[in-house]
Design goal:
2 domains; alpha/beta; 425 residues; 5-stranded parallel β-sheet; Rossmann fold; 21% strand
């Protein structure tokens, strides 16, 4: 299954290092060429010889040690790697990765790889919940790395909590999914338009109407489409995320700017995924100077923003595929079916933002695919996994007689409005 694939396995100094032995074994049994990278602390818990015996390759511990793969081993291995796994990833290693350090084999390799990176945290519950660790994990996720959530259970301290390394089978399963997505070329030669993030609708020079969308879902879709060979254009509202390497980002602020960008990019798109959350309404007038605080009330007149996806739906040509989003708090399926018809989309990705793991700021999502004749409910997944499921369905429509269209995001096409409780995606 993994014949011809090179996997780098980074093992840092947590008590769960012993589980990395099984991860290594499973990967080797699947046919992968595995190279193990260890921190000095990890060698105190598991002997490098154990990994060498299982993988059949020398274990890398000392950056200044003998070079066996070429002039500079870490350069050679980063160029050969199809996947880097860091398991267990301790709080210290996660912090060093997020900070761009290069003082050990794991961190120096992570700075050079162009392949997917899978990080499996393992630590005490308080360390995992600490805002510094959570910030570091967000940095890694924003780089496009896949970050698994640790499991709940008994920890090394004897206490119960969230911090256990996921089981080796689960880590290897996630690794297989990442490799499968990278090796698929079903979108090679195709052009994918993705919208992401919120919009800002100003009512004076310093204030605006917006929402809580961070753009994570749209950026995950853009990265997944790139990995499947597509040329990707990402029309993005304001966000702190960096675009996936190789993706062309068109940055916009307002809904009107997003419409203009989508109209320019839409004609050449094969697939358009409407994952952004532009505001449904904008202020009717923008004050020339900052509005001063006066009185107990302030009235701002709002006017409706254009419905971007509906506008593009009227322009779509045969062969294009449109994917709309519907983020709801109630009547999920009914609202999704209504939007499916209104937006002239091929299918709608609907999610209940009140469901655990599917709201603002999460790394996961729970969605339902709604088509004219079917409802397909997916389990809780990472946003990258949801992205690949979306692209699976869209790619299939490209080759089918029923595949229609192309589109982009709209103010009501699954986006959250300025005053509506829609989800971050």
């Amino acid at each position: 299954m993994l014949h011809g694939k090179t996997v780098l396995l980074g093992v840092s100094g947590g008590i769960a290092a012993y589980k990395a032995v099984e991860i290594c074994s499973r990967l080797v049994k699947l046919g992968a060429e595995v190279h193990v990278l260890m921190t000095e602390a990890a060698t105190r818990l598991v002997a490098p010889l154990t990994f060498q015996a299982i993988s059949g390759n020398p274990v890398k511990v000392d950056l200044m040690g003998e070079q066996v793969h070429g002039h500079v081993d870490h350069v050679t291995l980063t160029h050969r790697a199809d996947l880097l796994i860091v398991a267990p990833a301790t709080a210290n290693t996660i912090a060093r990765l997020a900070g761009g350090h290069a003082g050990d084999w794991i961190t120096v390799t992570a700075l050079g790889v162009q392949c997917p990176v899978l990080v499996a945290p393992s630590m005490e519950a308080e360390m995992y919940a600490n805002p510094l660790t959570q910030r570091n994990l967000r940095i890694l996720a924003e780089l496009g790395w896949e970050v698994m959530e640790p499991e709940e259970g008994r920890l090394a301290s004897g206490l119960m909590g969230k911090g256990r390394l996921p089981e080796p089978a689960a880590i290897v399963e996630r690794a297989l999914a990442l490799l499968k997505a990278r090796t698929r070329a079903d979108l090679a030669g195709r052009r994918v338009l993705v919208t992401a993030g919120t919009t800002r609708e100003p009512f004076d020079p310093v204030r605006f109407i917006g929402n809580r969308s961070t753009g994570r879902m749209g950026y995950a879709i853009a990265g997944a489409a790139r990995d499947r060979g597509a040329e990707v254009v990402l029309v993005s509202g304001p966000t702190h995320l960096e675009p996936p390497p190789g993706v062309r980002r068109v940055s916009v602020e307002s809904c009107l700017e997003m419409l203009e960008a989508c109209l320019a990019e839409f004609p050449d798109a094969d697939i358009a995924v409407a994952a952004a959350a532009p505001a449904d309404y904008r202020p009717a007038a923008v004050a020339a100077s900052k509005i001063k605080k006066a009185g107990d009330e302030l009235t701002i007149t709002l006017v409706k923003n254009p419905d971007i996806i509906a506008e593009l739906g009227r322009r779509k040509r045969p062969g294009q595929v449109t994917v709309a989003f519907a983020a709801e708090t109630d009547d999920l399926i009914a609202n999704a079916r209504r939007k499916l018809a209104q937006k002239n989309a091929d299918f709608v990705v609907a999610n209940d933002v009140t469901a655990e793991g599917a709201g603002f700021g999460t790394e996961t999502n729970r969605v339902v695919f709604v088509t004219p004749d079917a409802v397909d409910e997916l389990p809780l997944m990472t946003k990258r996994e949801v992205a690949d499921r979306i692209l699976d369905r869209a790619a299939a429509l490209l080759g089918g007689a029923g595949g229609a269209h192309g589109g982009a995001d709209g103010s009501d096409g699954g986006a959250e409005g300025g005053g509506n409780p829609h989800a971050e995606r």
